[in-house]
Design a protein that fits this description.
The protein is an alpha+beta fold. It has one domain: Transcriptional Co-activator pc4, Chain A (Roll). It has a four-stranded antiparallel beta sheet. A hairpin with a 3-residue loop joins β3 and β4. The chain is flat.
């Protein structure tokens, strides 16, 4: 399996925060097919079962829904912040 790392960030999720895990997005060749792999890596190098592997078609289909979810989450957070300020 070959992988091309696209993005990495320290995990903020409770079990993996404080440097215990990194979130890694990569394009991988797996069983002769390209996949988009989003996974937690322990200590920055060891793959964990915490993640998902999507086909290119699935990732493409999900992308607009991801943008939609982000916009809604931001709007909800902003609404909560304004409510707390008043």
């Amino acid at each position: 399996m070959t992988e091309e790392v696209v993005w990495t960030s320290s995990s903020l999720e409770a079990k993996w925060k404080d440097g215990r895990g990194d979130v890694r997005l990569a394009s991988v060749d797996f069983y002769g097919k390209k996949w988009i792999d989003l996974r937690i890596l322990r200590d920055g190098k060891q793959h964990t079962r915490h993640g998902v592997r999507l086909s290119i078609e699935q990732a493409t289909e999900m992308l607009p829904r991801l943008v939609e979810a982000l916009e809604q989450a931001k709007a909800d957070a902003e609404k909560e912040e304004r409510k707390d300020d008043s």
